[in-house]
Amino acid sequence: MLPTVAIVGRPNVGKSTLFNRLVGKKLALVDDQPGVTRDRREGEAHLLGLHFRIVDTAGYEDEDPQTLPGRMRRQTEAAVASADVALFLFDARAGVTPLDEEIARWLRSSDTPVILAGNKAEGRAAEDGLTEAWSLGLDEPIGLSAEHGQGLADLFQALLPHIDRANAEIEAAGLAHIEQEIDPDDEDALDAAPLKLAIVGRPNAGKSTLINKIIGEDRLITGPEAGITRDSIAVDYLWRDFENRERIVRLIDTAGMRKRAKVQDKLEKLAVADGLHAVDFAEVVVLLLDSTLGLEAQDLRIADKVLQEGRALVIALNKWDVSENGSSLYQGVRKALDEGLAQVKGVPLLTVSGATGKGLDDLLEAAFEVRRAWSRRVGTGQLNRWFETALEANPPPAPGGRRIKLRYLTQAKTRPPGFVLFGTRLDQLPESYQRYLVNGIRRELGFGAVPVRLMLRSAKNPFGK
């Protein structure tokens, strides 16, 4: 656990830019147009030796609670309520607006301490705005520039007493933040480590609703509108498995991925790129299908992208509670997957419902199982005993009457599993024979339907030239 700081303010004052500055990475999407951020996004921030969790929130707007801006405002209010301190950001160049005054009234009525900061304060143009901010009744405003990194020392001084107080409370409760290094060859430690689980799929497949149901709270914004999610949002959850063990799952919600030709909007392009970036850092990816629409070509493209990145894949049919002809639909999707993803036949296919919670425990159990296979390492002795048997059952071909000699096989890496095949004349080994070996490794050595890499290494002839 870390002290939590929530950044709040009206749209387009630079909250996401400051968030990125404090976490040291461009995690949050940033654009000139207002209203880019919708869900609240969290990250670990470092500021001159201070270590805390920073929360980027949507721009605060005074709209009807049932509208999308109103649902975004509820997320912001929840972030402030759970934070140790709120950082109220306003545009120092634009000065105090009526919406800033409304936000200040709300923050003064909350129990969370507030730090007032004027962004875009580089140069003399911000002096009047900083002076005007005294009228908000939130003590002295700090002038800073999230874009250029100015004023961070003043921000440090303002945050320090709140962070120290929160750290003392965390230590007293025995919840101090401890980083643990995991040995990649320790299977038990890897199995107990937090699972990084990304949820991907087409727009409106129910990804955010599914995560909200798993964690039991409205953490992510949902609604009938397609494409609500923009940033990839990570949520940590403590799940109790079927053996009553507590397992940590980091659930990552991503933006809906439409066919590339249909993505014209700049923000949608950024959101899809952010989702693909989340896939790169996940261990297991759940491809969520809308069972009322079935399997489409775009679903197979997404699945193929996940497998090319070497991630373990699980496929889930969502909205199963409202689907029709369930048995025939399931069999049809299963057959289409085996044909469309021939390189990894047998990818787990489960039925779930984000609305009712059906099948969610089975989904998490399957994700842990497929990560176990994805992290599996086979000893060289066992591997080559299987290899000799495979060669006897199906010897390699002899193109042009010259024999291809396969010497031995070794596992070079895990996550995803990678194997190196040594021999002579491997440049002439047919793709079909390589697939025979990969399918055998997957089937006979316990790797299941995870992507397996096979690299070829031939000894160099010292007299070749």
From TrEMBL:
Keywords: GTP-binding, Nucleotide-binding, Repeat, Ribosome biogenesis. Residues 3-167, 195-375 form the EngA-type G domain. GTP 2 binds at residues 201-208, 253-257, 318-321. PROSITE patterns: G_ENGA. The keyword Thylakoid does not apply. It holds the Pfam family KH_dom-like. GO terms for molecular function: GTP binding. GTP 1 binds at residues 9-16, 56-60, 119-122. The keyword Repeat applies. Transmembrane segments: none annotated. One of its GO terms (biological process) is ribosome biogenesis. Associates with the 50S ribosomal subunit. Belongs to the TRAFAC class TrmE-Era-EngA-EngB-Septin-like GTPase superfamily. EngA (Der) GTPase family. HAMAP family: GTPase_Der. GTPase that plays an essential role in the late steps of ribosome biogenesis. This is GTPase Der. The gene is der.
